[in-house]
Amino acid sequence: MICERCKQQGLKSRVYPDSYGTSTAMLSQVYYDEEGVHHRHDLNTSTRGFYCSQGHRWYVTSGGHCGCGWVGHPTEVKWVDPEPSEPIVAETTEDIYEVEKT
Ligand SMILES: [Zn+2]
Ligand SMILES: [Zn+2]
Question: What predicted TM-score, i.e. pTM, was given to this entire model?
Fold first, then answer.
């Protein structure tokens, strides 16, 4: 597991699994076909969260796949955009006063 955003930016980072993780509870089809080939068609998907030491955060959703080429759910990566790193600067001092007042 490598952080793709760090890879794009030429950064190195450690990747940690997040505590977030879900999986669905659907039935799997497991059988041997007419040729005696084992199939496991798992309809479940699971989502796992990761974050890297550079502050990137993402979720990976993946499903089952089988040796015959069956894919239950294509692997999806969802990035969580980071908080803006630059402080939001008020345009005028009046704005700052308004914020402090409330
Ligand atoms: Zn990263
Ligand atoms: Zn199969």
Answer: 0.66
Lowest mean pLDDT among 20-34, 40-54, 56-70: 20-34
> CA 2 to CA 56: how far, in whole Å?
11
Structural contact between residues 43 and 64, judged by C-beta atoms closer than 8 angstroms? yes
Distance 80 CA to ligand 1 centre (A): 11
The alpha carbon of 21 and the centre of ligand 1 are apart by a number of angstroms equal to 19
The residue ranges of every structural domain in the chain are: 4-101
Cα(31)–Cα(67) distance, rounded to whole angstroms?
12
| 76 CA from centroid of ligand 2 (Å) | 21
**In the sheet that 45-52 helps form, which strands lie side by side, from edge to edge?**
15-23, 45-52, 57-63, 76-80
